[in-house]
């Protein structure tokens, strides 16, 4: 993509409404614009990142055996009456009527709809287990939308739902999702600590929230400092969890299972990027979702649901990866891998070299944003640092006279001078 043609309205000034780094940077880097409180347009740069994140989530869900489908954003109130949640859900649910005076709502979540789909289409235990998911916009009329996409009113969520014949099966589905979540967040460069969440009576301890630690996180979390070592080694897994303590809730702290001695208990702040839980037959009973069991008997299916805040993750990743000049994208979610900077647009050698680099990188499938604008070098550098592409490839008249371009790693700040050929092979290889 040529920067001269790209719709990328970057801002020099810090917008006054933004309180945390990720919100400020998403506005300044031209990723989002607010349309109403907690409702955003995703501009091309932001949209590219959102799709990369979504794709990682999708690949790990598929790898765990979940199947993607797509349910609508608008739902009928009828099924929510069946589950009893139409009245229970409260003001977070956006309700409205269609022209025939039928009550509708913009889905805040999809347990009812998926249970209805399951009930109407699955008859036998032979069709189990099933994990179904979609990646779809949700609306929750949050009291206090804030921090940009972190707590929006309209936001993108991946929600999966598991259906099993019995508790043993449900537990296996839960564990498959648990593992998939750890892999998903790791691929985005995040350490998300699974925290025991408050489940009420149903399902005992089969509920976890996944939190990325950040000072600006909205949730207070408590955990065993041994996690820090495991996280540094990238070794948090189910086995580690059984021995270590982490919870989102102070009331789990005194006397809970595996609570470490006070000197090992750390209090921190976290951003909740995912939440998984087992809820048994809560919806299958309320909505009569039964299958025929092994001996012909009717069985209410055992269910679980598994959410990931896809749009919130964009903010969470920026909270984890930025400095005072801008974003530092991990390569797996970067909107482009390379920012190509032409230091002197209009200079024949610079233009020819950059055009050639752009063509060759693009042909090799490397995503490049080519700053071909007639702007001062300082402006181009500041913009590149702000939008945070992992690699900056800089070509100017002085270097080119000696046959060199400069390659800068945005995360480490390290710069090397290379021949055009070695720069190409480094970025393509
Ligand atoms: P929170 O406690 O942050 O309100 P929740 O418990 O309501 O979250 P779930 O219903 O479990 O969230 O939704 C699954 C995931 O969707 C959450 O883990 C979070 O990452 C994301 N999410 C929830 N609400 C919002 C929101 N208002 N804006 C952006 N993402 C959200
Ligand atoms: Mg909520």
Automatic annotation (TrEMBL):
Enzyme kind, highest EC tier: ligase
Gene Ontology molecular function terms on file: ATP binding; proline-tRNA ligase activity
Gene Ontology biological-process entries: prolyl-tRNA aminoacylation
Signal peptide feature range: none
PROSITE patterns reported for this sequence: AA_TRNA_LIGASE_II
Domain Aminoacyl-transfer RNA synthetases class-II family profile: 38-330
EC numbers for this chain: 6.1.1.15
Compartment(s) where it occurs, according to its Swiss-Prot or TrEMBL record: Cytoplasm
Keywords, alphabetical: Aminoacyl-tRNA synthetase, ATP-binding, Cytoplasm, Ligase, Nucleotide-binding, Protein biosynthesis
Reactions catalysed: tRNA(Pro) + L-proline + ATP = L-prolyl-tRNA(Pro) + AMP + diphosphate
One CC-aspect GO term: cytosol
Main localization, broad class: cytoplasm
Pfam families: HGTP_anticodon, tRNA-synt_2b
Entries under InterPro entries matching the protein: aa-tRNA-synt_IIb, aa-tRNA-synth_II, aa-tRNA-synth_II/BPL/LPL, Anticodon-bd, Anticodon-bd_dom_sf, Pro-tRNA-ligase_IIa, Pro-tRNA-synth_IIa_bac-type, Pro-tRNA_synthetase
Subunit structure: Homodimer.
Role according to the record: Catalyzes the attachment of proline to tRNA(Pro) in a two-step reaction: proline is first activated by ATP to form Pro-AMP and then transferred to the acceptor end of tRNA(Pro).
Protein family according to the UniProt entry: Belongs to the class-II aminoacyl-tRNA synthetase family. ProS type 2 subfamily.
PANTHER family according to UniProt: MITOCHONDRIAL RIBOSOME PROTEIN L39/PROLYL-TRNA LIGASE FAMILY MEMBER, PROLINE--TRNA LIGASE
Name of the featured protein: Proline--tRNA ligase
